[in-house]
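Feature request disguised as a bug: please show the residue count (185) next to Ankyrin repeat-containing protein in the output. Example input:
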Amino acid sequence: MRPSPVLPILLSLLISACNDEPLQHSDTDEPAPLLLAAEQGDLGTLDALLAQSSSLDIRDACRWTPLMKAALNGHTEAVRRLLQSGAAADLTDKGGYSALLLAASNNHTEVVALLLEAGAWIDRQEQTSGWSALIWAAKRGHEATVELLLQHAAREDLKDFQGRTALSWARAEGHERIVALLSSD
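Example output, currently without the count:
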């Protein structure tokens, strides 16, 4: 099955909407070091910055935090260290995306588990399509992430802005194993 052309379009719209604002940065013209270290999963730099009590929830122009950047890229250990240092688990960006939504949409199951343990809201819906973590994972065929979200009581009845549920998306995308998971009681 071919990937939907809608996702790259949505991502480019989100990115372009943020390009007109300056990044939060240090005294140089470079983006904040903590944001870069988290995005790259650079644990040495991350540890050094955390030891200096860097602002854990600094944001870029899109309002992404270091935790969001680490979660999006599947940097499990960076996510763990940020959470242990007190990073807020449930902040959102301009589009209503949280670290949990970013991790679930990219099948970073271990990161999803860490965020759920830290108290991230499992049923948050982003504001571009109304998708929850479960809808994202089901639509994209991320079986292990769907299983984990169901184990943590993600609401299966949530509907996106088109009135579709995780089950209807999984069925439409041909993810039969996920359809079976979502259909079983």
